Amino acid sequence: MEKIKILLADDHDMVRMGLKTYLMLEPGFDVIGEAGNGLEVIERLRAISAEGGDMPDLILMDLMMPEMNGTEATRHVVSEFPAVRVVMLTSFLEDKLVMEAIEAGAVSYVLKTVTAEELIYALKGAFRGMPVMTGDVSQALTRGIRQRTVEADSSPLTEREKEVLLLIAEGMGNKEIGEELHISIKTVKTHVSNLLMKCELEDRTQLAIYAHRQGMIRS
Question: Where on the chain is 4-aspartylphosphate found, per UniProt (predicted)?
């Protein structure tokens, strides 16, 4: 059976040496190249492509590297060489870093604390297009997605909504606001509904109090 071709990317020579030694002894794997940073990864792939050589099936990519980090390199790989899959191998478990790596196109995100068997399992899974992540990584990804959703939902007020909020704080009714801003009462009501939703408030009185607290009242 044809072996899975791997390119190792890590800025520590000893780490690459250890990974290469282990993988070359493991049936079914062939380490065909190494890189010390993200730029070298892209350069090596471009060189292989230009020469018509065998492209790697997988890149075992370190996250934090000089010149170009693993996430940025992954974006380039996915864009230029979509058939090459990336497995991120790192010591970092921050929610944001996990999110960024997966969004960049990494198939799997694996911590350097995994066992040799778990790493092999992740590589074989990535080769088949199957994401493999430990429980800690899955939880970090879930938290990252949840935080991203919260940030998307808490959209800022538009300039028109700020104008309507200011006039509400000054005690104007819908008709007066419409006349002041030269918009229909229906449009005013839409803005008020949007304000209540975005500010997570229940009525106009709370909106007025909110505006005062935000220092939005005209002198």
Answer: 62
Size of the chain, expressed as the number of residues it contains: 219
What long-range pairs does 143-147 form, CB within 8 A, spacing at least 24? 143/95, 144/95, 144/96, 144/98, 144/99, 145/99, 147/95
Spell out where the chain has E strands. Answer: 4-9, 29-35, 58-61, 85-90, 108-111
Sign, CA dihedral 95-136-134-62, equals: positive
Is the Cβ–Cβ distance between 161 and 131 less than 8 Å?
no
- What pTM value is reported for the model? 0.65
- Between CA 213 and CA 114 the distance in angstroms is 50
Q: Is 214 exposed, middle or buried (0-12, 13-18, 19+ CB in 10 A)?
A: middle
Contact between residue 105 and residue 86 where contact means Cβ atoms under 8 Å apart: yes
Element holding 95 (H helix, E strand): helix 95-104
Structure tokens at 130: 């199957």
Q: What is the pLDDT of residues 173-211, one digit of tens each?
A: 999 999 999 999 999 999 999 888 888 888 888 888 888
pLDDT in tens, 111-156: 888 888 999 999 999 999 888 777 677 777 667 666 665 555 555 7
| First-to-last C-alpha distance (Å) of the chain | 79
Q: Which candidate, 1, 12, 16, 7, places its Cα nearest to that of 126?
A: 7
